[in-house]
Amino acid sequence: MQTLSLRELELEAQQRLDPAVYDYFAGGADDEITVRSNETAFAHIGLLPRVLRGAGPATLETTILGCHLSMPVLIGPTAFHKLAHPEGESATARAAAAAGTIMIVSMASTIAIEEVAAAARNGQAGETNLWFQIYLQPDHGFTESIIRRAEAAGCSAIVVTVDSPTFGRRERDLRNSFNDLPSGMCCENLREPMSGESRGPARKIVFSTEFSWKNIEWLRKVTELKIVLKGIAHPEDAKLAVRHGVDAVLVSNHGGRQLDTVPATIDLLPAIVDAVDGRIPLLLDGGIRRGTDALKALALGANAVAIGRPVLWGLALAGEAGVAQVLEILRSELGRAVTLCGCSSVHDLTPGLLQFRPVEEPCTRG
């Protein structure tokens, strides 16, 4: 059967993945209200297309923090790609490079950043469209060593996840006793540096309730890479990010995996757009499953969107080819939607193309 949508991809991937692995990828915190809301919130925004505008073929190209992209759809950071496919993050990186978009490599990658960068280059010289996601660690020396590896690998931005002072409670994982990677697999970027080029065992990721804006100031002093804050949900924090010289903000609720009942990111976006007032780029993740979802986020003021779980579904089905299929589905859907809205470019999208519908029923516990 030909797979026509990302939701069909997920259903097929679920059949192939170990149930505990599928639950790890798909699940969220507590009652998973935010997980569901991220997707369903897009249905409450209608499209009001313009007609007879002679817009011509749609152009999806854009530039984010100096990176030229074929479309404003990035691959967001997700952990443990080897659980979905033996080639793990390397397969994802090749697909992202071929599609002409950015891959944000997770600190919890099961392939080392050096190998992911090599895969993204795929034998080609020059720069890669790679960013690196990090959880700042209390050990500044170790944190700096990881940043230096990302710099050396050619990453052009550090994406700091800021919504995790502690680990969210994910009941699916507790029920499945899913608390560690299988034997022979680890977070390769967390290996202890040793003499020469060899590396020791991987450290555990440490979450800290004491991190503050002072840690962002420290980060700005130790790297010249662009800094993106991932996990901004409150407009006041968006304003603080601008004041602290952050280069971009990724509006995110961690895919509903940290604090349940946080509103859907598309509902959070307008207030953050107002708070930032065009001073830095805004990205959004959470619930993007159709090209029309991406269009709505762009029309509301996001410069680009990022996808997480759909990449894992594609990876589980067919490795690099599966991720390429995910990106191509979204490219095709977004291009068609832009054209049907009477626009020639993603930069022409405005809130005037949207109509907000009332929410008929409250989100209930499942």
Present the secondary structure layout:
Layout (H helix, E strand, L loop, with lengths): L5 H11 L2 H8 L6 H8 L4 E3 L14 E3 L2 E3 L3 E3 L12 H12 L3 E3 L7 H9 L8 E5 L5 H14 L3 E5 L9 H6 L14 E3 L5 E4 L10 H10 L3 E7 L2 H9 L4 E4 L13 H12 L5 E4 L5 H9 L4 E4 L1 H32 L13 E3 L10
Parallel strand pairs: 4-13, 5-6, 6-7, 7-10, 10-11, 11-12, 12-13
Antiparallel strand pairs: 1-14, 2-3, 8-9
Helix pairs in contact: 1-12, 4-5, 4-12, 5-6, 9-10, 11-12
Summarize this structure as a short list of keywords or feature phrases.
15% strand; alpha/beta; 366 residues; two-stranded antiparallel sheet
Question: Strand content of the residues, in percent?
Answer: 5-15%
Mean residue pLDDT: 94
- Strand count: 14
Specify the structural class.
alpha/beta
Q: In which range does the helix fraction lie? A: 25-40%
The number of helical elements comes to: 12
Please state the oligomeric state of the protein chains shown. Answer: single chain
Shape: globular
Q: Radius of gyration, Cα only, in angstroms?
A: 20 Å
What does this structure look like?
By secondary structure, the protein is α/β, with parallel strands linked by helices. 38% of the residues lie in helices and 15% in strands. The chain has 12 helices and 14 strands. It has helices at residues 6-16, 19-26, 33-40, 88-99, 113-121, 140-153, 171-176, 213-222, 235-243, 265-276, 291-299, 309-340, and strands spanning 45-47, 62-64, 67-69, 73-75, 103-105, 130-134, 157-161, 191-193, 199-202, 226-232, 248-251, 282-285, 304-307, 354-356. An 8-stranded parallel β-sheet has the order 4-13-12-11-10-7-6-5. Helix 10 (265-276) links the parallel strand 11 (248-251) and strand 12.
